[in-house]
Amino acid sequence: MKHRHAHRNGNGKHGESFPHRPRKRFGQNFLHDQNVIERIIAAINPQADDHIVEIGPGQGALTRHLLPACGRLDTIELDRDLAAQLASSIPSTMPSSLQPANAFSIHQGDVLKFDFASLTDKPHSLRVVGNLPYNISTPVIFHLLNYHHLVKDMVFMLQLEVVQRLAAGVGDKSYGRLGLMTQYYCRVEHLFNVPSAAFTPRPKVNSALVKLTPHLVPPVTARDVSCLQNVIRTAFTQRRKTLKNSLKTLITETRLRELGLDVLQRPENLSLSDYVSISDAILPPL
Ligand code: SAM
What we know:
single chain, binds S-adenosylmethionine, elongated
């Protein structure tokens, strides 16, 4: 997909305020609480040489603080009206050091189709942030995991339940595919919770800030990640079943026992390295 660049000197006067009716289908819950905004910016801790990518800048609540503090800021916004509004209101807040071309860009389009590799080829250089649209937060994280090698870290506002799934450990109620695949690539930190009163309109769910830091040295490596994904997906499709039943289309009970696993356990009792050993075992020998 081709992404439209909204130009910095678009229509409208600098600093002009535009009435915007929040669009539910775009997951628009705007941050208005300045204390919460400052805590998020402090958690991101932008630095002068950072290349930051903000997903869903909306009306610029975070953007305005990030821009003067970093070296380059790319934003990705689906809503054409908000992208245009941002293009005309942000430049007035830009310090002169950020005026050169490329230091600030608005990519109008869908983050799920956005090619993050078009921004850089430098390993672990992108800092991805955003108060994500909750309706697509899980697909956004899976999409970004494809670019883990280019990402330094990610700080996201998410639905609390999704943060709990990301951070879940063996045996936790919310342990599953999202947490396992994210932890395969990243260290996960649940930073703090945010009350729904911090947003306009208020979301119906609780929110939390999470930090994901791609591993420089992965704690465990699968021979084939798509095979690992398939094993995890298959196991958790029937999470109440015992291992020998839920994985029987992929691996025999005998083979599971040979790997030292208790076949009567349920998917939530296996660690990431257990899943990696199953995945490696079902591949043809090297
Ligand atoms: N950053 C702003 C704030 O904190 O006030 C807005 C956050 S709001 C929760 C989510 C933003 O993501 C909205 O601006 C929305 O239009 C945008 N958005 C929704 N779906 C998107 C998509 N698929 N790709 C890019 N942006 C999207």
